[in-house]
Each structure stands twice: as structure tokens, then as C-alpha cells.
Specification:
The chain is α/β, with parallel strands linked by helices. 25% of the residues lie in helices and 30% in strands. Helix 4 links the parallel strand 5 and strand 6. The protein binds 1-O-pyrophosphono-5-O-phosphono-alpha-D-ribofuranose (PRP). The site of 1-O-pyrophosphono-5-O-phosphono-alpha-D-ribofuranose has 15 residues, from strand 5 and helix 4.
């Protein structure tokens, strides 16, 4: 149910829940094929990635284990490329097949940093799987192994993506109305 307030904010559906479900299953099948019977260590960055992670993990048929990272950008925002870990992984990744799972990549600075940090820990392999990509916003080169969808150049919410921490739980992805971006916080 949409509240009056939501109608001021939420615009067109960009990807339906069914489209996302189909694409996540396809990615799961490809990952299952590529990793064969190897155990995959799925690493996700809080918070947005957890929705994709939960569905992707259930679409993968090899053994998986899960671990989480949290990061924060220094003053100046992620544009400066200054990122630090606020929560490290619980487990060692030495000799393991690590797949970083993220909801969205824009500049690539966040994942670029995380990839460098994890690479130094000598995993057996390190790959990246993202659901949404904005390649036209990239500032640094980033090898991405699995991509779900390319996002249009709009502010979007749902399936992990937020507007002021809300709407992550929408099962579909929707545009935020441009006029809503100027609304004061309530
Ligand atoms: C999003 C996303 C990535 C980052 C990508 O996180 O989950 O971590 O932005 O942007 P970049 O490629 O420009 O570095 P966000 O900061 O929105 O935090 P959240 O996951 O808690 O929503």
C-alpha cells in the first residue's frame, strides 16, 4: 500500500520484482556453473547489498558461506575515494574463493577499495557480482564479473537502494520523483 507521502516520492517502476527475480536466478545459475562444486565465500557490504545477497545465495547451488563488511567514507564523501572499514569480515579468506556481492556500483571507488583490501589477504580467487551498474558514472576501472542490470541515470530506490534510508524493502526498483529530492526531511 502506498501512503500519500510515498506518492509524492515514488515514481515509475524501473524493474519489476519478477524481472529482478528472473535475473537473480540467472546470475545464480552462472555462478553455480563457474564455481562448480567449490565453496564460495560471499562477501557483502552493508547495508544495501543484503537484499541481493539473500536472494542470490538461494539461487546458487554450490556450498556458500556469508560474511559482511561495513565501510564509511571520510569527510568529503566517497567522491574523494577515501573509505575506511567500520566492520571487518568475521572470517579469514586466505585460500578461499571470494565473491563480493554488491547492490550498485557508481564511481567504483567503494568496490575498488574493498577489492584492494581483500586481494591483500591472499584469497584463492576474488570476483565481483553486482545487481545494478551505472557504468557512465565510473571514475576508476573495476573488473566486474557478473552484472544484473544497467540503471538509467535516475535516482532510484528499492531492492536494497534507499532514499534517506527508506524504501530498501520495496520488492521492485522505482524512480524517485525529481521534485521529491528537494523535499525537507521529516
Ligand atoms: C552504495 C553501494 C556501494 C556504493 C557504490 O552504498 O552499496 O557501496 O554506494 O558507490 P561508488 O561506486 O560510487 O563507490 P551507499 O553508500 O548508498 O550505502 P548503503 O549500502 O548503506 O545504501
Amino acid at each position: 500500500m502506498m501512503l500519500a507521502r510515498d506518492e509524492e516520492i515514488l515514481g515509475d517502476v524501473i524493474f519489476t520484482a519478477a524481472e529482478i527475480r528472473r535475473r537473480v536466478r540467472e546470475l545464480g545459475r552462472r555462478i553455480t556453473r563457474d564455481y562448480q562444486a567449490n565453496e564460495v565465500q560471499l562477501v557483502t557490504v552493508l547495508k544495501g547489498g543484503v537484499f541481493f545477497l539473500a536472494d542470490l545465495a538461494r539461487a546458487i547451488r554450490c556450498p556458500v558461506s556469508l560474511d559482511f563488511l561495513a565501510i564509511s567514507s571520510y569527510a568529503g564523501g566517497s567522491q574523494s575515494g577515501e573509505v575506511r572499514l567500520t566492520k571487518d569480515l568475521d572470517e579469514s579468506i586466505v585460500g578461499r574463493h571470494v565473491l563480493i556481492v554488491e547492490d550498485v556500483v557508481d564511481t567504483g571507488l567503494t568496490l575498488g577499495y574493498i577489492r584492494r583490501v581483500l586481494e591483500q589477504r591472499r584469497p584463492a580467487s576474488l570476483r565481483i557480482c553486482i545487481l545494478f551498474d551505472r557504468p557512465y558514472r565510473r571514475l576508476v576501472d573495476l573488473p566486474i564479473d557478473y552484472v544484473g542490470f544497467e540503471l538509467p541515470d535516475l535516482f532510484v530506490v528499492g531492492y536494497g537502494l534507499d532514499y534517506r534510508q527508506r524504501y530498501r524493502n520495496l520488492p521492485e526498483v522505482r524512480a524517485v520523483k525529481p521534485e521529491a529530492l528537494a523535499l525537507p526531511e521529516r
